[in-house]
Amino acid sequence: MSRAEQIVSGLARRQRAEKRFRAYGITAILLGMSFLVLLFTSIIANGYQAFTQTYIELPIYFDPEVIDPNGDRDPQALFSADYWKLVKTSMYQQFPQVSGRSGRREVTRIMSGGSAFDLRERVIENPDLIGTTQRVWLVADDDIDMLMKGYIDREVPEDERRLNDRMIGYVDTLDEAGIVERKFNTTFFTAGDSREPEQAGILGALMGSFLTLIVTLLLSFPIGVAAAIYLEEFAPRNRFIDLIEININNLAAVPSIIFGLLGLAIFINWFGMPRSTPVVGGLVLTLMTLPTIIIASRVSIQAVPPSIKEAALGVGASRMQAMFHHVLPIAMPGMLTGTIIGMAQALGESAPLLMIGMVAFIVEPPSGFTDPATALPVQIYLWSDSPERGFTERTSAAILVLLAFLVTMNATAVYLRKKIAKRF
Amino acid sequence: MSPLFLIFILLALSSAAYFFSQRRMLRQTRDANITRLNSLPEHFGMLGAIWAGAPALLVYFLWLIFEGDILMGQVLAILPDAESMAATRELLIGDIRNAINNPISYQMASEEVRMAADRYRELSQTASIALAAACLSVFAICSALVLKFLTPRVRARIQIEKFVRGFLLLCSTLAIFTTIGIVLSVLFEASRFFQTVPITEFLFGLDWSPQMAIREDQVGSSGAFGAVPLFVGTLLISFVAMLVAAPIGLMSAIYLSEYAPSKVRTAAKPLLEILAGVPTVVYGFFAAIVVSPALRGFGATIGLDVASESALAAGLVMGIMIIPFVSSLSDDVIAAVPQAMRDGSLGMGATHSETMRRVILPAALPGIIGGLLLAISRAIGETMIVVMAAGLSANLTANPLEAVTTVTVQIVTLLVGDQEFDSPKTLAAFALGLTLFFVTLVLNFIALYVVRKYREQYE
Questions:
Q1: How many domains would you assign to chain A?
Q2: Does B43 lie at the interface with A, CB-CB under 8 angstroms?
Q3: Which SS3 state, helix, strand or coil, does residue A232 take?
Q4: Interface membership of B4 toward A (CB under 8 Å)
Q5: Alpha-carbon distance A313 to B346, whole Å?
Q6: Considering B154, B171, B186, which residue would you say is the last residue of a domain?
């Protein structure tokens, strides 16, 4: 066989190898994409139903005997009255045939304990309700919610599900009467954390994340930009500056949990700052996001053509003036892009916040930088630990909210980079 | 006067000083008939504001940093048997702090702690008045100095620029301070740990059970701090992750950079990068809710016993997280190989895949290895996925179907919800943190070095 024949005979094999190699590449891409799709679909499938919640419309008699026995509309008395009793009474009227303590308890278990708070709010807002009977939409218990959403399988043997046949029967009766409905879940956006899934919301965690990010932004943006300006424009070339640069690059790759240890040891134990607060969380996240912001800001200063600076220097500006008056405004969109990406990282970060104690069970949304708080990703972590199906659903929904924020931030960053950043 | 209010007053006074200095300079130049002022009027304004305001602000911040400790010292001194409680001093301070910050803790605290908390509150009220007085008088003195020394002859712009330059330098040294802070804090607490547990036992011991018994006579009251099972668990999960991420990441980088039409490339690249932007807590949830049960179910159908918190599940999901990291680093490296090498190989009649495998990959190998090292260091330090999807008990095993625990999981479990700072259990977390920091530092250092060497080769 001549050399040329050898080559020709090997050609088919080589072409096959080429096709195989290309197929590997496509497979890799498709695998990556399918992971992405799987991740999102599983979370959406788990979570979309949490945005609605089961409500039951009950006729509630606002019994003056229960709410306001003295008849003086004393706010203190109105606040501490036993509104749960009103709910119970109404439920007993719905099912007059049920008697006995355990039977009656089952009937009241259909309603959420939170419905009492709802009634209290209504009465305090409008005391004229007392003595009247109103039809009120009240939140059902999370088990009922799960039943209505189809998560509790009626075919499963009775002793293996959370609701027995009698309770399912009660709910069906109410449903046939047309007073069970799924409505938009406002509680999820207006309440703090709770042990009961149907009363739990993300407002507290959102506030905590917001306050933490404010601290992070206020510190990391000016410091990061200042450091970038110095390193790009004013730093002499010497060992010390090399050391700074090595440090910045290394800090960018240090595991985030180490920053949490730093925060715990220095800010909390040494400076005695209060645990679980947005201010400490913000400080820790500042140290964590600084390298990102510094690196992005340096890149965006480098992208400004030197002619801008030289022109400024040529007409007599000092280096400081050339930098702050001419280079910085041009580099600013790029810096903002880097900052937004850093903030998005900080928003999704939870490990360092665990270290500084932002994992507490906190019902009241924080109102200041030194109130105990948790953050949205930490809330997700806390809820994911809870066994109730209602919390699984809410965890996914909270993830969707978090992802929505991240997408918005990143989209803004991309927009800034594409539209506002000047190109030369 | 609350400290927050005071800082607003100081800032307002400083800006008043700015306008005052500026106006005054203009007036002086007019009166003295100076036509060529060496700096712009606003430079004089800024200088006036800095001279007048900066010392007061410095006093303010130093005061706030040290106020807590000094007041606490005062409070402890008035407690009757403070001397005898020296051993539990830190605990006592913690109690008092809680009682001050939290009304419920105050209700539950002992008589002495309540007394101390009351005293602390009194003192801190006095202190905030003193702080206000100190800051305002410093401001007044400095303003007088401004009046005396801020003349048209002062080279204001030069001074301002020096000041700004100092500030810029300070900001860029923060990275060094952060590193020093990390090293010192972790090292200090870890050294306290190594006083009770020998370092050799920590590094080479095979038994990890940090739960200390409450009573002395309980079984296992000493606790065991051999970290080898944690290291093995961490490596096992990272290994699984790299098995997923390295081939998928590398192959997709190769496909995107060499084969894909530009439309596919511009669409697929950002989509893959989304994987990197998803918060790790989301991956953790995904691993715990979707992947673990699926693997367990799959194992059951083929007769394998998969633990519900298996290393495989955590590693798989971590691998998914790292894919875009590997792919974008490899992409950079492959793009850095000179076009001439590609053209040469293709010109000799090699197919694309042969060029890739025999020319470009060998040339890019150091860079790719550097990228993989960075990916491993990220896998080792990853926390939330393993906290949510890996186990808590330390099994010394190499079987990915069993539950293992990792260094980061143990740091979290040891430190969350625990406040006592003198037990080896808490300090062990810092020893683990030190190990983690050291290992990732070395990995990063090698990786960055390799990548830089590689880049230089082709530049």
A1: 3
A2: no
A3: helix
A4: no
A5: 49
A6: B154
